[in-house]
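Kindly inspect this chain:
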Amino acid sequence: MRNSALVLDDTAQILSVYDKVRLVPFGEYMPFRAWLSGIPKLTEGTVDFSPGTDLSPLPIPGLPAAVTLICYEVIFPGRGSGAAREAGWILTLTNDAWFGRSWGPHQHALAARMRAVEFGLPMVRVANGGISFVTDAYGRERQRLALGVRGVLDTALPAALPGETLYARLGDQPFLIAVLASLAGMAATRRERAA
């Protein structure tokens, strides 16, 4: 069983499929099932989902191909970076209804907007209980449905930024270099104090 997004034509024929790659532990699968057999999943059911493997942009007739992120895949930086080079936008689909009217949907929506900024791609976020929105490539919202509001967003898909963003090119490497430099500096300072 997989958690998937399907593109259908007007006769309900499947044109393309994206299978979620990064599954939620304890929700979509039980890690270390042999050792944690007495611990129930946070979601209904006992069957684990299987992760997908294809990170290619999802082809959608009449639109540029989309980096597709299902639910919590959108919170991870760099997710879909290879696909972002070939895509014209980001599509994220989520079920935030189980959060209710808590801080969860707001935090999840803010994290999603960061992916638009990282890759310089517009985003369409579809959440069954809200918060749904369309952003431009800078993460600025163009249209929005608030938490708990039902409706339809009807807007043109904003353009992607020309070329790749610095983050799309370098990813987390500058951050890792800064962390390593900080650790090296702390170690040198400690040795000087010990001497």
